[in-house]
Amino acid sequence: xxxxxxxxxxxxxxxxxxxxxxxxxxxxxKTIGYYATNVAPHSATVRATYTVPTGKKAFLDLISLVLxxxxxxxxxxxxxxxxxxxEGTGNWLILNARFQDNAVRASKWNNQGESGVLQxxxxxxxxxxxxxxxxxxxxxxxxxxxxxxx
Length: 150
What we know:
Blueprint: H1 5-8, E1 28-39, E2 42-51, E3 56-71, E4 79-86, E5 91-99, E6 107-118, E7 123-130, E8 136-149
């Protein structure tokens, strides 16, 4: 007893595809990150940057962000840690963690997986800011990237 005609007419799943999947095109794992404690208040400051090289694409696998109050501020302000995407026409927010809490060890975290594909010359950066007066913060950010042939 054979397969129905429609089953036999399908191409075999073992046939080679004309182009390998992205994860089979010389993948390299990259990370960008920033970790600092006892950081004084500051305006928006870029802490780390990644640019996709020519002839490559990159997949954003994982982003992890943490903010924590280390010492009390005189006047509390908004504290942020942000991962942004820039593809040439402007910056786009991918993920952020922010809070306005003055309790020591108060924290905020945010995680995200599988955030998309970047083209050659696209950039991802991490930046922080603290609008408080006095006090100190802990910042932690990690972005895992898989770079592969375009």
